[in-house]
């Protein structure tokens, strides 16, 4: 009977989880964007991520030779985060074709697996399924979490791997099974390889187990947990190795596509510090969490400070070390918080452990049933309000789909049927202008080449210098007659559509002066 009860309990639990995730998925409007291409905030970084997957697919599946569509680096080679998810995406392309939804869905699946592990971790430590579900649902009150969970940026996937790691680590802590420990560090390492800032998580475990022997009476060496120490060191070595390889790789191919260094607070002026802080606390603040959720977080921190003697000592010490690591991350990457809201996701593992530790402390106080119901009801109301608030914020992000950064790429995407009819060879090199993103327009064309950022930078000399480097087509996404004249002077117009004109630079190369006089001959026109 117990066996069947356990099976039925698991089935019911899975059914409830599927129902909750399905309701949230549709309530937050994620169904409306799951199959869309990149859009909204950070369009440029989204297209960079898709470019890695696209280049693997079209240029060969050489894992340690990542690249982008933009040829400003030698042969387009560039590296940033560990490209495991991009590589898997490119392999899936073999079945689906180059479908933008693949990477988005892959990131979402990893993220949701991380959320499930938050629930299971909370159940392990709190023995309370309802409370554990509420802790997991806290994340859905964050617009930043909801926006990037179904997105192309690597941060949500890295977070998912880290939370899987924390779940297996605490399974090891409670059950002392070595396979759980090694599984934990596999996922810790994966998350940290994808985003090096998440290395604070395995480092927190490593530091904790280097400190624990100091609190014991036995000899320091005898008290060391060597499997954890060695696993932690091996994780750090792997992450460091990738980052060293990435830096050398970028140097070898003269890649300047990504910032791969820290941007600490001491490198900027007081005025810049104040500007970043204003963005962090005023502009982005409401996207990190709904205000009542922030009040709840501040409340649980105050609660733990006041009642730290009743807290679980292991959890408390681990949380303090992780807090120190997150504070160091904030200081080292302070400048990035001005324009990059997704950096806040790095704090989520700490916030989850803060919630778990606070409620474990509360359980140590053995509250009455009435108090327990009141607290859970209050948390439920705050979370429900926060999810509703985040849903509204999320829709406003998607509604503001086109901006200066995404305009070129989205215009090209809208003209895709007409562009396909031109039969431009897939290996043809193109110039896209004006385009503020290094890969946005090129990704939509699925062609390698160059971007020219601003109209005033588009010159005959610049175009001709790129022709010498192999440029064959010029794609002008503008209605500015002065800019279009540069196209007529350097190539032959072969296509005009909604806000876009394409010039064949090879046909114009031998007759630069004839381009303007032969407008409209042999071209395709789509209004």
Structure in words:
The protein is mainly alpha-helical and 527 residues long. Helices cover 61% and strands 4% of the residues. It has helices at residues 2-27, 43-59, 84-96, 101-126, 129-137, 143-149, 155-175, 178-194, 200-211, 220-223, 226-252, 270-283, 285-288, 291-306, 313-332, 348-364, 369-399, 407-414, 416-420, 440-445, 460-468, 481-490, 505-509, and strands at residues 430-433, 449-451, 473-476, 492-496, 501-504, 524-525. The protein has a six-stranded mixed beta sheet. The longest helix is centred in the C-terminal third of the chain and has 31 residues, at 369-399. The protein is elongated, with a radius of gyration of 26 Å. The model is unreliable at 510-518 (pLDDT under 50).
What's a quick, concise take on this entry?
This protein is mainly alpha-helical and 527 residues long. The protein is built from 23 helices and six strands. It has helices at 2-27, 43-59, 84-96, 101-126, 129-137, 143-149, 155-175, 178-194, 200-211, 220-223, 226-252, 270-283, 285-288, 291-306, 313-332, 348-364, 369-399, 407-414, 416-420, 440-445, 460-468, 481-490, 505-509, and strands at 430-433, 449-451, 473-476, 492-496, 501-504, 524-525.
